[in-house]
Design brief:
Layout: E1 5-8, E2 15-23, H1 27-34, E3 46-52, E4 57-65, E5 76-83, H2 85-97, E6 101-102, H3 107-114, H4 120-131, H5 135-145, H6 148-172, H7 180-201, H8 204-212, E7 214-220, H9 226-234, E8 252-258, E9 261-267, H10 277-291, E10 295-299, E11 314-318, E12 331-332, H11 341-352, H12 365-386, H13 391-409, H14 415-422
Parallel strand pairs: 1-6, 7-9, 7-10, 10-11, 11-12
Antiparallel strand pairs: 1-2, 2-5, 3-4, 4-5, 8-9
Helix pairs in contact: 4-5, 6-7, 6-13, 7-12, 12-13
Length: 429
């Protein structure tokens, strides 16, 4: 799979520069035909000169990365041209005329994975960084790219390999029963691996919130100040504010970034009994928003306390600082003066997200399913080992856990999994 591929690596549209990338056999030969360099191309040097697109020329730069010391592990050439759409297209067209083919989605990164330059989860980290809609997602993607998850998975595989070695020795020499110390060591190792996988699984909630944002529901009685609070948090008029009770009849959503994490703030209809069918539907949707929220902000007023979903953090707010009693609320604030808004943002972060992990954690559903399957296999193996069952009965569970962990790095990932991952990439990456 080292045939020559080419694509525009930068985003579509006008800009300062555009990058046309080639990777594979013959990249340097095409570069010599298209670029006005008289001498030899030294690897990792950027040269200035004319780029010949056949029907026109552009003054830009060219850099050559010699295999295997390149992103893909193959010979790579990049043309850095002026950022006009037609300029980049013309240069790409010329590269294709000279023998390259158009790269498929994610093919550059896929080649890096196939050539051992990065693991499968590291490749997914590249995709997460490119698609990031928050600073936290960029940081999380970089941890994947930096092989944090792969390193943990590999370390757990090594521990399971040790267990399998003990079991296989018993199977190979059945006349020598697995002694008590060996069995105890296997049990201790399986228990340790299980605990590490359980800790990893507990990080998925944070990973999901980084990817999708933290869901926040603003709830309270009509005219409690929910819409005013939404507008104050966002810094612009997102919701209609009126003295008329029942103005908000549907959920209104806006996004706020706190400490690099996206928070999806939902303004809901005021909670009350109503004869109005439309308002009743709004109240129903408000209760549904509460059920799906990661944290609830309750704008407290005298009257009935809503029935909150069990386990969901609730921040009690007195939104009218001149009227609210501080002892009854987590925060007293004013949407009009800004008093207490910073304190609310801090509390939203603490109760809605917690803290970022700087180690391995689960960012995608694929990673979660793999870790969960490995954890179940380890638990089954541990139960059999603790029950003094024959080693051959739990050896298969250990192997299943080992193979499942290998899908994180790509070591045991199926072709279908690999294809699905790289099809989500853009063409130039």
């Amino acid at each position: 799979m080292d045939d020559l591929i080419s694509a525009i690596a930068t985003a579509v549209g006008a800009g300062g520069i555009a990058v046309v990338r080639m990777s594979g056999r013959g990249a340097l030969s095409v570069a010599r035909k298209m670029f006005s360099r008289k001498g030899e191309f030294q690897p990792n040097y950027m040269y200035a000169g004319e780029i010949d697109a056949g029907t026109f020329r552009d003054y830009g730069m060219c850099v050559y990365f010699r295999a295997p010391k390149s992103f893909t592990g193959e010979d790579v050439v990049e043309f850095h041209c002026h950022g006009g759409t037609e300029i980049a297209r013309g240069i790409l067209k010329r590269a294709l005329e000279l023998g390259a083919r158009l790269a498929e989605r994610g093919e550059f990164t896929k080649r890096a994975y196939l050539n051992g330059k990065l693991s499968l989860s590291a490749a997914e980290g590249v995709g997460e960084m490119i698609a990031a809609s928050s600073e936290a997602q960029v940081r999380a993607g970089y941890l994947l790219y930096n092989e944090k998850l792969t390193s943990l998975g590999t370390a757990l595989q090594r521990k399971l390999t040790h267990c399998l070695a003990e079991v296989d020795a018993d199977l190979d020499y059945p006349e020598e029963d697995l002694n008590a110390s060996s069995r105890a060591e296997i049990v201790a190792t399986l228990r340790e691996v299980g605990q590490e996988l359980a800790a990893l699984l507990s990080q998925y909630a944070a990973g999901r919130k980084i990817r999708s944002g933290v869901s926040v529901a603003l709830v309270g009685a009509p005219n409690a100040g929910k819409s005013s609070l939404l507008n104050a948090l966002l810094g612009y008029e997102r919701a209609i504010v009126s003295d008329v009770a029942g103005t908000t009849r549907d959920v209104v959503e806006g996004t706020l970034e706190i400490e690099g994490v996206n928070f999806r703030i939902t303004d809901t209809a005021g909670l009350r009994e109503s004869a109005d069918a439309i308002e009743r539907e709004g109240v129903r949707r408000a209760r549904e928003a509460m059920k799906g929220a990661d944290v609830i902000v309750w704008l407290k007023e005298d009257g009935e306390v809503p029935e909150f979903p069990e386990g969901t953090p609730v921040i009690t707010v007195g939104a009218k600082s001149d009227l609210a009693r501080r002892e009854d609320c987590d925060i007293v604030l004013s949407s009009y003066t800004g008093e207490g808004l910073d304190a609310l943002r801090r509390l939203l972060y603490e109760r809605g997200f917690g803290r970022e992990n700087d180690g391995a954690f689960l960012l995608s559903e694929r990673h979660y399913r793999a870790a969960q399957a490995a954890h179940e296999a380890v638990k089954e193996a541990l139960a059999s080992a603790e029950g003094s069952l024959p080693p051959e009965l739990y050896a298969e569970d250990i192997r299943r856990a080992w193979e499942t962990l290998g899908t994180l790095s790509g070591e045991t990932a199926s072709e279908a999994i690999v294809t699905e991952i790289f099809e989500k990439f853009c063409v130039g990456k």
